[in-house]
Amino acid sequence: MLYIGLDAHQSTSSICILNENGKRVKRQTVHGFFPKVMEELRKVGEPFEICFEASCAYGYLYDELQKIARRVVVAHPGQLRLIFRSKRKSDRVDAEKLAKLLFIGEVPEAYVPSINVRNWRRLIEYRRRLIDKRTRCKNAIRALLRSHGVRAPRNLWSRKGVAWLASLEWPNLAAEVQRELLIDELAMFERHIRKVTKALDEMGFKHPAVVLLRTIPGVGARTAETTAAYIDTPSRFSRAGQVASYFGLIPCQDSSAGLNRLGHITKQGPPTARKYLVEATWQAIRRSPKVKAYFTRICGEKQDRKKVALVATSHYLLRCMWAMLLHGEPWREAA
Fold it and tell me: What is the dihedral of CA 206, 127, 251, 86, to 10 degrees?
């Protein structure tokens, strides 16, 4: 059995091969895109295990390597940086480090979902980016109006409001051109968001996990689909604390010499899922007596604890979601 470390890039990739005793037998630099790397790996005459670091193309590489390798391990980049803090860094060195970690069985593995789930996640993230761009466009329109002393109506983003904006007279050509381009840009983002939302709705309505999570008061389609997509397989988490850690909802910890200091949440993991979860928590507090009681118990009478209580309630709601997906049970309002 051979152990291969792969540091893959678009133009140049490095391969390091260790034998069954952990001794380096080959080191190679491959010039070319990923198919060229696959071509070189197919030339390895013995069964092998391979390890590479997660990147934007990790899904494609994982699927392709599964066809030719005995075992494929994707290393978690954040945890790798904690293991290897070295001033000497290059592609060849990184490939050898990955091969050695694979040989001793100490690779910090990253979870690789199926291709359908990866595409689902990408579409969710793409919709969030579209909304962010639309928000920047709206802010630019408001800034343009303010810079010319024009007060925008309340219904500026309705059809009537956009028609008012389009008919507005401007003192110079530069402002008029900017207004027209921003209106076109806003219409384009609205059209794209509707198209992506329609596709996500079609996918979510057929997914049992999304249907199950939407039984929670205040949890809508966007929160349910994002949480279901990122949890994916509930059984991959052995306890609720791991789910909260994956979503970045646990506090930073500094424990030493008998002192235990807890800080802000780590904010690791998917920020889109965390954002939607916090927004859904506000709705759940308003609509669910069970969630509201949990929030009130932590917040108490102190107004300055609202943010802390909100994050803690989001943590609680996420644990409930994981348990519901794990056991296939809908939301129960009774304690």
Answer: 110
DSSP class per residue in 210-228: HHHHTTSTT--HHHHHHHH
The rounded distance, in Å, linking the Cα atoms of 251 and 32 is 43
Measured CA distances, 301 to 69, 219, 295, 316 (Å): 59, 26, 11, 20
| Residues 6 and 37 sit within 8 Å (Cβ to Cβ) | yes
Query: To the nearest whole number, what is the mean pLDDT of the chain?
Result: 91
pLDDT tens, 192-231? 999 999 999 999 998 999 999 999 999 999 999 999 999 9
Contact 12, 31 (CB under 8 A): yes
Amino acid at 292: K
Q: Say how far apart CA 279 and CA 273 lie, in whole Å.
A: 10
The amino acid at 172: N
Task: List the strands of the sheet with 48-53, edge to edge.
Answer: 24-31, 12-18, 2-7, 48-53, 71-75
What percent of the chain stands above pLDDT 70?
A: 96
pTM recorded for the entire structure: 0.89
Domain ranges within the chain, ordered by starting residue: 2-104, 115-206, 210-327
Q: Is 291 left (phi over 0), alpha (psi -120 to 50) or beta?
A: alpha
Q: Write out the two tokens for 70.
A: 């005995």
Q: Look up residue 109 and give its DSSP letter.
A: B
Strands 2-7 and 12-18: antiparallel
CATH 3.40.50.1980 correct for 2-104: no
Residue 247 one-letter amino acid = F
CATH class of 115-206: mainly alpha
User: Max CA-CA distance within the chain?
Assistant: 78
- Residue 265 confidence (pLDDT): 85
> Per DSSP, which regions of 224-325 are E strands?
251-256, 259-265
